[in-house]
Automatic annotation (TrEMBL):
Annotated ranges, domain GHMP kinase C-terminal: 210-285
Pathway: Isoprenoid biosynthesis; isopentenyl diphosphate biosynthesis via DXP pathway; isopentenyl diphosphate from 1-deoxy-D-xylulose 5-phosphate: step 3/6
InterPro entries given in the database record: GHMP_kinase_C_dom, GHMP_kinase_C_sf, GHMP_kinase_N_dom, IspE, Ribosomal_Su5_D2-typ_SF, Ribsml_uS5_D2-typ_fold_subgr
Catalysed transformations (reactions): 4-CDP-2-C-methyl-D-erythritol + ATP = 4-CDP-2-C-methyl-D-erythritol 2-phosphate + ADP + H(+)
Function: Catalyzes the phosphorylation of the position 2 hydroxy group of 4-diphosphocytidyl-2C-methyl-D-erythritol.
GO molecular function: kinase activity
Membrane-spanning intervals of the chain: none
Protein name, UniProt field: 4-diphosphocytidyl-2-C-methyl-D-erythritol kinase
Species, as recorded: Sphaerisporangium flaviroseum
Length: 307
């Protein structure tokens, strides 16, 4: 059972003050893009009694992904088995193309794909809403990876409202050599605000951004892109300043750090302009590599059923 799942870019990430539970209230405009991981779930290894969950990883990021219980895909399979109320196991194979610790929710995507794949493998037939509840308990970005498309996330990002979008938008993602810890970026954001005396406002969705999405207006959307975590990410990873400048100088309609970074996202006016921008960023040497994608695309989707 193989499920394909997309990366995300945050078109708007507005961060409120810290909550008592350690999270922040957010307005998070998620946008799923055509950079995919695939998760294949098959029967548990022989001799495991049928209740073991194992994971292996293929692809350029394989060495950066944990292969034990810390892997979010493993946690997703175990959470689903617990919801089913019986001992169930699976062998998981993750084919990674989404950067690890890159601000594109790769781990959350793998967890979402695992929920769909194991639900089908085990013949549970759980309603999508029940899968969404399990996803929300696993992490703030996991529900959106199930949903896909474009959506506003509130609370800590897990409460989703679908957004109407006209047409496709074309993106370039400048992939960095390393990663950034989401927790460290949020902590730096809080530290910088406290040092400057800035009080975090209650976050609200940008009406300009919503209107641009509905109209398919890439130029207005590019100007409306917003990420409150970007100053913190730039403080922790100074080379990203040069990456963003290069993208703007080579014609991007909009540029921002995706989520907690360090991936940088650039909106282009067309597929051809995205291809040219990616080539320019590669030539400028401001990132490990630059890839093109389009959005929005669907969330976790079964692409091969082996049952």
């Amino acid at each position: 059972m193989t499920v394909r799942v997309p990366a995300k870019v945050n078109l708007q990430l507005s961060v409120g003050p810290p909550r008592d539970d350690g999270y922040h209230d957010l307005v998070n405009v998620f946008h799923a893009v055509s950079l995919f991981d695939e998760v294949t779930a098959s029967d548990a290894p022989a001799g495991s009694g049928g209740a073991a969950v194992t994971v292996s990883v293929e692809g350029q990021y394989a060495g950066q992904v944990p292969l034990d219980g810390e892997n979010l895909a493993v946690k997703a399979a175990l959470a689903l088995a617990e919801r089913a109320g019986r001992p169930l196991g699976a062998r998981l194979l993750i084919r990674k193309a989404i950067p690890v610790a890159g601000g594109m929710a790769g781990g959350s995507a793998d967890a979402a794909a695992t929920l769909v794949a194991c639900d089908e493998l085990w013949g549970l037939g759980l309603p999508r809403q029940e899968l969404m509840e399990i996803a929300a308990a696993l992490g703030s970005d996991v529900p959106f990876a199930l949903l896909g498309g474009t959506a506003v996330g509130t609370g800590r990002g897990e409460k989703l409202t679908t957004v109407s979008v006209t047409g496709d938008f074309h993106w370039v993602f400048a992939l960095a050599a390393g990663g950034l810890s989401t927790a460290e970026v949020y902590a730096e954001c809080d530290r910088m605000r406290e040092a400057s005396g800035e009080r975090a406002a209650w976050p609200q969705a940008s009406q300009t951004l919503m209107t641009a999405l509905e109209a398919g207006d890439a130029e207005t959307l590019g100007k409306a892109l917003l990420n409150d975590l970007q100053p913190a990410a730039l403080m922790l990873c100074r080379p990203l300043v040069r990456t963003l400048e290069a993208g703007r100088n080579h014609g991007a309609l909009g540029a921002l750090v995706s989520g907690s970074g360090p991936t940088c996202a650039f909106l282009a006016g067309s597929e051809a302009k995205a291809t040219a921008l990616a080539a320019a960023l590669d030539a400028a040497g401001v990132c490990r590599s630059a890839v093109t994608a389009r959005g929005p695309v669907p969330g976790a989707t079964i692409v091969r059923a082996d049952r």
